[in-house]
């Protein structure tokens, strides 16, 4: 039985990653994927599209069209989800139910950086539109920034840190991290704007929203739904 050093240049390693000419690192594509295959097809969140003859019709991972599509989908779907989940009211002091799994699913189909930020911006815009109709509050701009930073943190962990972005553990850790970052912004905003708020109230808000957004309406539905919506996500990623 040969060792890894015995493998011919370009052969895939045991971890599924393509090997470069030296046989000791990922190749330029990152995976042994065929033409037109994305990372989502191959079981990971990264887009590893190989150039093919019809690449001209692909808007590309960083194109304006693709980013606008992600932002629009995030804004509409997140707003619709909020209309349902927020109808249940707050479960504790400044702790509510928000369907973070919706932007999370879109981020799984996107790369980190610009497309992921587009999803976060779309979610913030969807929430902002609803806030205008429900009554704009002074802490809303802080929450707006929190959405963009929080969802970007989820994308950063999933695509740049996690070894396998499709593992339930990676999804759960990323979902909790993103919700915690956003909840910190919410807690600070609540403590700053609400005159009667205390540090304990801000802590309850931060921890409570981390649980409701990151686990209850974050990691759990994300892990359950991802295998079932992989096909439409793949089309959006393309």
From TrEMBL:
Residues 10-23 have a biased composition (Gly residues). The chain crosses the membrane at residues 68-89, 101-121, 141-159, 171-191, 211-229. The keyword Membrane applies. Keywords: Membrane, Transmembrane, Transmembrane helix. Residues 1-39 are annotated as: Disordered. The keyword Acyltransferase does not apply. This is Rod shape-determining protein MreD.
